[in-house]
Automatic annotation (TrEMBL):
It is found in: Membrane. One of its GO terms (cellular component) is endoplasmic reticulum membrane. It comes from Onychostoma macrolepis. Its EC number is 2.3.1.199. Belongs to the ELO family. Keywords: Fatty acid biosynthesis, Fatty acid metabolism, Lipid biosynthesis, Lipid metabolism, Membrane, Transferase, Transmembrane, Transmembrane helix. One of its GO terms (biological process) is sphingolipid biosynthetic process. The keyword Ribonucleoprotein does not apply. It comes from the Eukaryota. The chain crosses the membrane at residues 30-51, 63-86, 162-183, 195-219, 231-255. InterPro entries: ELO_CS, ELO_fam. It is a multi-pass membrane protein. One of its GO terms (molecular function) is fatty acid elongase activity. This is Elongation of very long chain fatty acids protein.
Length: 267
């Protein structure tokens, strides 16, 4: 198959990125994700105890800067990876886009594949603000952070098919999500439908992710559709759990709460 991705424009820093060194690093260090997850869990436990009898910290300006940096990063990543996937689907069709594994080494996308995987570690910092500002920390939040970190680092070293779809979708959703967080952290009131739209995007991401995994399962025995049953199984469990948790969150946040508020007003 002709390497369509070579015809896509790549910036100099993208072409120069050493994806082989990145692969070697993750092959040797992907297990560190378990250590990071452990430290993260301990921080949550001890941090909440430490803050229990203390005044919550404001941290508005640092939070705006933090969210803005992640928003810009996500927008750039979404632009580059989505353009790659769009051209892949347009040029070679859905099957090739799902089975593609050149995403990890293509000039225009290899840096963003690595950056995406690595970024799951600093994104744990979202929880630092929640703990120090004494906000409500739900199960979905920390469960999502830990499982994405573990799966992303585990998967990058194997460079299995489907990664382009998963990363492009996540970058895109995060571009909207962190932009929303930036505006909210600045003190600007955001209309309720915007928050609903972002949660719906997250639910849609899980549905598409499960569909891609279904196709990978069907095509897994093809020579150029590189994946493993272990990876497909882990990803399926992860995406299905996200779908259920985000759906529950959507119902409780936008329907159950509205119903409760209406009952209170009537009473």
């Amino acid at each position: 198959m002709m390497k369509m991705n070579e015809s896509l424009h790549a910036f100099d820093f993208e072409r120069r990125f050493n994806d082989r060194a990145a692969l070697e690093w993750f092959e040797q260090n992907w297990g560190a994700a378990f250590v990071l997850s452990g430290v993260y869990a301990v921080f949550i436990f001890l941090g909440r105890i430490f803050m229990k009898d203390r005044q919550k910290l404001d941290l508005r300006k640092p939070l705006v800067l933090w969210s803005l940096c992640l928003a810009i990063f996500s927008i750039m990543g979404a632009t580059r990876t989505s353009w790659y996937m769009f051209n892949m689907v347009r040029s070679h069709g859905l099957r090739e886009s799902v089975c593609d594994s050149e995403f990890y080494s293509a000039p225009s996308s290899k840096f963003w594949a690595f950056a995406f995987t690595l970024s799951k570690a600093p994104e744990l910092g979202d929880t630092v603000f929640i703990v120090l500002r004494k906000q409500r920390l739900i199960f979905l939040h920390w469960y999502h952070h830990i499982t994405v970190l573990l799966y992303s680092w585990y998967t990058y070293k194997d460079r299995v098919a489907g990664g382009g779809w998963f990363m492009a979708m996540n970058y895109t959703v995060h571009a909207f999500m962190y932009s929303y967080y930036t505006v909210r952290a600045s003190g600007t009131r955001v209309p309720r439908p915007i928050a609903m739209m972002i949660t719906l995007m997250q639910i849609t991401q899980m549905l598409v992710g499960l569909s891609v995994l279904g196709l990978l399962y069907l095509w897994r025995n093809e020579v150029h559709c590189i994946s493993t049953m272990h990876n497909i199984t882990y990803a399926f469990i992860m995406y299905l759990s996200y779908l259920l948790l985000f759906s529950i969150f959507f119902y409780q946040s936008y329907f159950k709460r509205s119903g409760d508020e209406k009952r209170v007003k009537r009473e």
